[in-house]
């Protein structure tokens, strides 16, 4: 039979085993908790590294976006500059064409002026004026009318595209032609394309004058088919004709008159010396 001491010893052993068992369970629970916490720490570290990576990636992305925007601005500036250069080149090209045209016009004006004073033959002067009007102005139907101081009328002395007999004479101060001869001011119709030919009311009427003295007029009734309006050079040619052609005509007529008178005088002298 167990004694009281044996019972007490067995009871203490049971208590010890229970305490040891609880300690083992507690230790095991601590180890599991420690493992769980360590795993959580690893998760947090991974999450932190991922967050930092995303933050770094986000920062790099922002830098790239900023650089792209800067490059876009630079591209727009370059494209704008290219457009400006292209416009400047176009302006230069247009100006170059204008200068070339001006040079050609000046050359034509010089040639026309030189030709007008290259002869003292009246018929040759009229022919030169006719060629200038056809080739440089582009007129198809026109007439050169000179003042007959005996009758005080303007009469056609040369024509192109129309018969000279069909051009009516005009008294100074009467109608468009007579009015231009009196005032010395040129006449132009406002709308060339809608003009209807009228021999008494020309499309263009230019006075041929020396200083204030009008010796005749140039009248234009029709332009060549390919010409629908007057160019700036045409008005310069009209100005040239108003002065230089008048001088050439006046000089050639004086020369012709003097030649005729000289021939007459020479004829009388021949008769007297026979």
Describe the structure.
This protein has helices at residues 4-116, 122-137, 175-183, 232-273, and strands at 139-148, 153-160, 170-171, 187-188, 204-210, 213-223. The N and C termini lie far apart (209 Å). Helix 1 packs antiparallel against helix 2, helix 1 packs parallel to helix 4 (232-273) and helix 2 (122-137) runs antiparallel to helix 4. A hairpin with a 2-residue loop joins strand 5 (204-210) and strand 6. It has four helices and six strands, in the order H-H-E-E-E-H-E-E-E-H. The protein folds into two domains: 1-116; 121-264, Beta-Lactamase, CATH 3.30.450. The radius of gyration is 55 Å and the shape is rod-shaped. A six-stranded antiparallel sheet has the order 3-2-1-6-5-4, with helices on both faces. With 274 residues, the protein is α+β, with helices and mostly antiparallel strands.
Mean pLDDT, rounded to whole units? 80
Distance between the termini: 209 Å
Outline the low-pLDDT stretches.
none
CATH topology of the largest domain: Beta-Lactamase
Structural class: alpha+beta
Could you say what the CATH architecture of the largest domain is? 2-Layer Sandwich
How many DSSP H or I helices? 4
What is the strand and helix layout of this fold?
Layout: H1 4-116, H2 122-137, E1 139-148, E2 153-160, E3 170-171, H3 175-183, E4 187-188, E5 204-210, E6 213-223, H4 232-273
Summarize, please.
The protein is of the alpha+beta class and 274 residues long.
